[in-house]
């Protein structure tokens, strides 16, 4: 495990940027996310506590594939552009925006994003949280964590995206997030069918 100067674990492929949006933008984004009418997350017959809205593409967990969703709204495009610049990507590659509201008691369990997606860029709004990471070793799990500060962004690519699972502990206060994703080679083949 790599450590930074403060003995904080650093994962190859995990990038962060504080204050990618300012406080006024954060308030506006929270209002816009709530105005989309987010619905409970559904996963193979199970209903989660977090509420979601997808734009561009959504992942249908019942069918096991991405499906078209409403186009990204105008208010989200400048945020997508900023997220793409942070990650060093062309903004048109970010084909999905997932908006999430985590009400009290909502978190997200251990997972890796679906293989149809490549880069994962998240923007955290509201309450601070911690993203936990783990990867299996012969003797158990190697673990790390990264703070998700309000108004900050993170980018998962390479090993942080593909070799590690991540999760967020259930929140005591509301938190919102915007997650942009690009397609992987698998995703491009899937959508070409």
Explain what the structure shows.
The protein is α+β, with helices and mostly antiparallel strands. The chain has one domain (12-192): Jelly Rolls, CATH 2.60.120.590. The chain is built from 4 helices and 15 strands. The protein has helices spanning 23-35, 77-87, 158-162, 185-192; strands at residues 2-3, 9-10, 14-17, 39-43, 46-55, 57-60, 65-68, 94-102, 108-111, 117-126, 129-137, 140-148, 153-156, 165-168, 175-183. The longest helix has 13 residues, at 23-35.
Order of helices and strands: EEEHEEEEHEEEEEEHEEH
* Helical proportion, percent range: 10-25%
Our count of helices gives: 4
Beta content comes to over 45%
- Residue windows where pLDDT falls under 50 for at least 5 positions: 1-9
- Which structural class fits the helix and strand makeup? alpha+beta
Cα-atom radius of gyration = 16 Å
CATH architecture: Sandwich
Question: What do we call the CATH homologous superfamily?
Answer: Alpha-ketoglutarate-dependent dioxygenase AlkB-like
Shape field? globular
CATH top-level class: Mainly Beta
Count of DSSP strands: 15
Mean pLDDT rating? 89
Number of domains: 1
**CATH fold description:** Jelly Rolls
**How is the biggest beta sheet arranged?**
7 strands, antiparallel
Termini gap: 40 Å
Strand order of the largest sheet: 3-13-10-15-8-5-4
Secondary structure elements and their pairing?
Blueprint lengths: L1 E2 L5 E2 L3 E4 L5 H13 L3 E5 L2 E10 L1 E4 L4 E4 L8 H11 L6 E9 L5 E4 L5 E10 L2 E9 L2 E9 L4 E4 L1 H5 L2 E4 L6 E9 L1 H8 L1
Antiparallel strand pairs: 1-2, 3-13, 4-5, 5-8, 6-7, 8-15, 9-14, 10-13, 10-15, 11-12, 11-14
